[in-house]
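Sharing a chain and its predicted structure for anyone who wants a worked example. Both blocks are below, sequence first, tokens second.
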Amino acid sequence: MEHRLRTRLERELESLRLQQKQGNYQAAPVPEYNVPALMELVREKDERILALEADMTKWEQKYLEESTIRHFAMNAAATAATEK
């Protein structure tokens, strides 16, 4: 997800640079597009990405633990069934 967002923003940046070179670019006078606001937005998004990645890692670990427990339980049941 982060990679897609980065790629999209890089394409947009390249497009804006090309427009600026051609003289077609008009800077948006909208105040929310100033550098400090955008930096804050990027920081917030980075924090959200890190939190989601940590959450994903936690769930992956839980899945691996449960998968291992199921695997051992199935092996124990199969061993018990073959011994009878």
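Comments welcome. DSSP finds two helices and no strands in the chain.
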